[in-house]
Specification:
By secondary structure, the chain is an alpha/beta fold. It has 13 helices and 10 strands. Strand 7, helix 11 and strand 8 (about 230) form a beta-alpha-beta unit. It is globular. The relative contact order is 0.07.
Length: about 280
C-alpha cells in the first residue's frame, strides 16, 4: 500500500513508495511510471488473471467476492478451472440456492465459443489488448497457433506494433502456453475470425432479442460481422435492436424503449428489416 505522510517541517503531504508488495512481500520494481510486483506467483497477479478472464468475457453473476473466495479455497487458480466447477462448489462456499448456482454455471458455459481477439485480451498479457490482437489477425495471424509461432521480427512488420509490444506478445503467449492448452482441454473453442465481405453495416452496432424466424442467433452474429457491423449489448451506443416482438416484456426491449424515450438514436427493427439492410 502507498502510504500518505506529512512532512511536519513544511506541512506538506507526500507518498511513501512501498519497497515490497503488500500482498506477497516480494521487492517492488519500477517499470516506467508504474510500480509493479515482478513475482509471477503473487496471489494478486493470479487474482488479476482470473478477474480479467471473467470481465473480458462479460460473464454475469461472478463478481469480485466470488472470484476471491474461489481463489482462496484453491478451487480456481487459472481460467480453465472455472469450467470444472460444480453446483456444489458454489452451494458449499456461499450456501447459495441451487437455482443461483445453476445460473452461474449456465452463464459460464454459455460463453465457451470465444472470438480470437477477445480470447487473447482475456489472457491478461500486459499491453496486449483486443485491438493488438485485431492488428495481428488483420496481418494473417488468424489462429492462436499462428500467433504463438510469430517472432518479434515478424510482428514489428505489422503496422501499429512496435518492438516493445512485440516482445510482450511473444513472451506473454509463451508464458501462457499451458493456460491456453488447459482452456482448450476443458472445451473452450476459439472462433476463427470472420472475414468482412461487405461493408454495408460499417459503423453500426447490433443486438437481438427473442426468437429469430429465418436464422439461428449465431448465424445472425456472423451476418453482422461479415457486413462490417459490431455486436453490442443494449446501451446508448447501440444502433439497432433486432426483434420480431417489440412489445414483449424482455429486459432488452424495456431498456431500448427507455433509451429511446430519453432521446437515444437507437432503432428497434424487425428481422426482415435487418435482412433488407444487408441485401
Amino acid at each position: 500500500m502507498i502510504r500518505r505522510k506529512t512532512d511536519i517541517a513544511s506541512n506538506k503531504e507526500f507518498f511513501e513508495i512501498p519497497a515490497t508488495c503488500p500482498v506477497c512481500g516480494h521487492p517492488t520494481e519500477e517499470e516506467g511510471k508504474f510500480l509493479i510486483c515482478p513475482n509471477d506467483n503473487c496471489p494478486a497477479l493470479e487474482y488479476g488473471n482470473l478477474f480479467k478472464w471473467i470481465a473480458t468475457l462479460d460473464i454475469k453473476s461472478i463478481g469480485d467476492s466470488i472470484i476471491e473466495v474461489l481463489q482462496q479455497e484453491r478451487l480456481v487458480t487459472e481460467p480453465a478451472d472455472f469450467y470444472k466447477l460444480t453446483e456444489n462448489d458454489f452451494i458449499d462456499l456461499y450456501r447459495m440456492g441451487e437455482k443461483t448456482a445453476k445460473k452461474i454455471l449456465k452463464n459460464l458455459h454459455a460463453k465457451m465459443e470465444i472470438d480470437l481477439d477477445i480470447f487473447v485480451a482475456a489472457l491478461n498479457i500486459k499491453d496486449v489488448s483486443r485491438s493488438t490482437a485485431a492488428m495481428m489477425i488483420s496481418a494473417g495471424y488468424d489462429t492462436i497457433g499462428k500467433m504463438h509461432a510469430a517472432t518479434i521480427d515478424e510482428l514489428i512488420k505489422i503496422g501499429g506494433i512496435e518492438i516493445v509490444t512485440a516482445e510482450k506478445i511473444v513472451t506473454g503467449l509463451t508464458d501462457k502456453y499451458s493456460v491456453i492448452q488447459n482452456l482448450i482441454e476443458v472445451g473452450i473453442v476459439i472462433n476463427k475470425p470472420i472475414v468482412v465481405v461487405d461493408g454495408k453495416l460499417d459503423g453500426l452496432t447490433f443486438c437481438t432479442t427473442g426468437t429469430l424466424y429465418t436464422m439461428k442467433r449465431k448465424e445472425f452474429e456472423i451476418m453482422v460481422k461479415q457486413n462490417g457491423g459490431e455486436l453490442k449489448s443494449v446501451s446508448k451506443n447501440l444502433s439497432c435492436l433486432v426483434t420480431n416482438d417489440a412489445d414483449s416484456g424482455s429486459s432488452k426491449n424495456a431498456k431500448a424503449a427507455a433509451l429511446i424515450a430519453e432521446g437515444s438514436d437507437l432503432k428497434v427493427i424487425t428481422e426482415q428489416q435487418f435482412l433488407e439492410m444487408i441485401k
